Each structure stands twice: as C-alpha cells, then as structure tokens.
Amino acid sequence: MEPSPDHHHHHHQEPHSSVCAKCGGPAAFPTPPPPSDTPSYIPIRFPAVNLPPSPTNTRETIMRTPVPHAEKVQPLTLPHQFTAPSKRIRSPDDLSTFHSSPSFRNFLGFVVSLSESTKSRKLSDPCHVSPTVQTLVSILQKLTDFVDEIPPAPQSARYGNVSYRVWHERMSAEAEAFMLMFLPPQLRDATVEIVPYFTDGFGNALRIDYGTGHETNFAAWLYCLAKLGVVSEEDYQALVSRVFFKYMELMRKLQITYSLEPAGSHGVWGLDDYHFLPYIFGSSQLIDHKYMKPKSIHNDDILENFCNEYLYLSCVVFVKKVKKGLFAEHSPMLDDISGVPNWKKVNGGLLKMYKVEVLEKVPIMQHFLFGSIIKWPE
C-alpha cells in the first residue's frame, strides 16, 4: 500500500526545486560529469539513504536522454506467418537488448507519432474517422457496457473487487470475435498474435491491478494494428481523440468500480497511479495554446471548462478527485511539471520520462509481449 503523502511531507523541499529539470525545465544543477573509471567515487550530492526515494539518478538519466523521434510504421508484407506472442524480458540485459533494437525504436516512434498527430488539437476537433476506427470505439463501448452489467461485489478491502475477474473473463472470451469485426479475411489468422496484447491492456485479473505496463500493452495492440495496415497515419489523430479517449473512459470506470490496485506505482514520486500516455498526448494537445499554460492546472475554472477537451486536464481533474489533501503533496511530479514554461517542453520531457521510467523498467516490461510483429531481436 502506498504510504500516505504526509510521510514524505518534510522531505519535499530538497527534490522539489530541481525536479522540473525532469521535464526539460531550467536545470537547478549542472549536467553531471560522465561516470568515472573509479566506481568507488560517489558524488557528494547523491541523496542520503534514508530519504524517500526521489530518484535523483533517474532524473539525471532523463535529462541526458534525447527526446524520442516519430517513426513511420511499415506494414507487414503478406502472406505472413503469425505466432502466439510471449514474454522475453527477465533482466536488465534483456531490456537493453530490446532497447537497442529496431522493434523498440519503431514502437516508441509510433507513440511519438500519435502524440504529434494530436498537437494543438482539441478532442472534439473534426478528424478522419475510418470504419475501422469506428469499430474500435464500439468495441471499447461494449466493454464499458459490460461494467454496468457486472456490479461490484460487496468488499471491505481498499483495493481489489473480485467482480473485476468476471469482467476480465468476459472481455477475454469476446476478444477474438472483437478482432474479427475489423480484420479483413486475409488477416484473420493474426488474432493468435494480437489478442494477447488486447487482453493484457486492461489490467491483471489475478492481482486485480492496473498500471503503465498494461497501458503500454494497449498501445502495443494499436501498434500491431498499424503494422497490419488496418489503421494508417491518417487515422492517428482519431486513434488518440476517439479510441484512446474511449479507452481512458473505460479504464477510469474499471478503476473506480472495481477498485483496481495501482500496479508498480511509484507512490508519491510517480506521475499518476495508473496512467502515463494521456499526459503525453494531452500535453501535445496544449502546445501553443493561446492562454493555457502548464501552470493553468492550478486554475479550477480552466480545469472545469476544458477537461472534456484536453486529456492532460482530464487526468488532473481525476487525480484531484480521487486524492485527498494538498495537490503539491499527493502529486509532486505533476506539481513540478506545472512550473515548466511551455507545453512543448512538457511534452518532450514526458516522452523522455516514459522511455526511462516505463519502457526501461524490468518490473513493468517483463510483461511485454514479443511475436512476429514486435520481434524479439535475435
């Protein structure tokens, strides 16, 4: 269980001032020297052991990471032999193998492309909505309706309503039929490979939890659809403003109805207990906005009036609704980001942070799947 924010209260001052460097804001300290050949030397400003884990070294890693670039997705050539995907990441070595591969670059490049497709656009802005995208939205709507049909069981624990398992089983049972609603005949045998990404995208039935690893699997499912050619670049804006938006609605409903436990939450130093991608897409939406700045998240009128149009603001509203106490205490990361001068810096910083904090973490990525579409580098 996450300690209540006041445990960290009196430690906030030190990390607080420099964290916005995480998002490319003005750094409050010089760029660290390259690691020395004498590993026994430990720079004096490394945090004391007993501080709450404000990851200073992580922060420096993020600063040194270049902002990831968009990449085009080349659809597979048919005929193609699909395979049931499996987990391959067990150690930091496995993870660096994946990170230096074209598979990884292309997947992250796809996420960046989705982010760029929604730049300076509201959720309601007109965009190309293909029949496939419409079908994807209707699938997510059906899953949302399932929640209404499966009420939570009486529960006394803070997390983990067992009725979620009933929902999850129903979603999994329907998954293949859902895929066949949009796959053309020559791609029907792709279900063996794309269904597992889909069913892993909504949380874990055994642990009744959900986190950024599941969110990443959902993004990987969308990436597979791009590799299959069933969605293309002209669909990207709708994948964010229609499909991902619907996914967020479903996930918030699941989180609240079945009290899903945050999986691998960083506690108070995380961005959000459950999500990361809506902050990336949402900060892109706000780039060059005439009057909404990162600090506008502290303005309740703005939040109320615009949370339906901007994913970032809707996430902040949700966090404020479910967390008690002072915003700066329960969400220091979001609070720090609000001090960054503009949304372009926020977006670049969050993309770097996603790479380092989510895609480079073994506990998260050990659940990532590899098959013939997202290939494990041999």
Summed up, what is this model?
The protein is mainly alpha-helical. The chain contains 16 helices and 4 strands. Strands 1-4 form a two-stranded antiparallel sheet. Strands 2-3 form a two-stranded parallel ribbon.
Task: Give structural notes.
- With 378 residues, this protein is an all-alpha fold.
- Helix content is 48%, strand content 2%.
- The protein contains 16 helices and 4 strands.
- The strands form 2 sheets. A two-stranded antiparallel ribbon has the order 1-4. The protein has a two-stranded parallel ribbon with strand order 2-3.
- Helix 2 packs across helix 15, helix 4 (102-117) crosses helix 9 (236-257) and helix 5 packs parallel to helix 9 (236-257).
- The radius of gyration is 21 Å and the shape is globular.
Unreliable segments of 5+ consecutive residues: 2-30, 35-53
- Main beta sheet strand tally, sense and closure: 2 strands, antiparallel
* Percent in strands: under 5%
Order of helices and strands: HHEHHHHHEHHEHHHHHHHE
Number of helices: 16
Spatial ordering of strands, largest sheet: 1-4
Mean pLDDT, all residues:
87
- Helical amount: 40-55%
- Name the overall outline: globular
The whole-angstrom Rg is: 21 Å
By secondary-structure content and strand pairing, the structural class works out as mainly alpha
**Euclidean distance between termini CA atoms:** 39 Å
- Find the count of extended strands (DSSP E, 2+ residues): 4
List keywords for this structure.
378 residues; mainly alpha; two-stranded antiparallel sheet; two-stranded parallel ribbon
